[in-house]
Design brief:
single chain, mainly alpha, 5 helices
Amino acid sequence: MGSWGTLGPAVLSLAGVALGAIGTFFGQHLVIRASARQLEVEQSAAHRAELKDVILKFLGVASWVQKAALARSGDDGGQDGRLDELVEELWLAQAEIDLAARTEPMRGATYRYAFRLAETARGDDADAATLRGVQVEFMDAAYDDLWPGRQREAAAGESGRNA
């Protein structure tokens, strides 16, 4: 029993050091994992904010193009220069979304919406229903790109209409 009396405290000390080291490594693992998740969340929020800004810019230009194109249909054509400038701004805003978007459906919906608006501006097609269809497709794709995997809630007007 004499050897246990001198060897016991050394073994228990060594076991304590080993448990402490394991606890430290496990704690560091948890901290690194939490830091990585926090960085991912921050990057996602920053990307969402950037994408939201370019979407709002695109929608603003799209609104001006649509208003100018519809106003031109009853005009003598004096607004053509300004409309051409707006269409150029529209394509630049579309390119910004093309660069910032995460998903191909978002890029495609943006292109189709811009293309339909450009056609309307040229006087090819001023069908409000067609414009509304590509606008809805664009908005759905924007929502899916901003909040991937999140189910979109129906608006109050839509829920009453679907009932």
